[in-house]
Amino acid sequence: MTNVTKFDAKTFPWSTAEIEEVRDRLLDLFCLGAYREGDFLLSSGQRSSYYINGKQVTLHPQGALAVGRVLLALLEPDTVAVAGLTLGADPIVTATSVVGAYEGKSISALIVRKEAKGHGTQAYIEGLTLPEGSRVVVLEDVVTTGQSAMKAVERLRDAGYQVDEVISLVDRQQGGAEFYQQQGLKFRAVYTIEDLQKRWKQLQA
Question: Where, by residue number, does 5-phospho-alpha-D-ribose 1-diphosphate bind (predicted)?
Answer without folding.
Answer: 113-114, 117, 119, 140-148
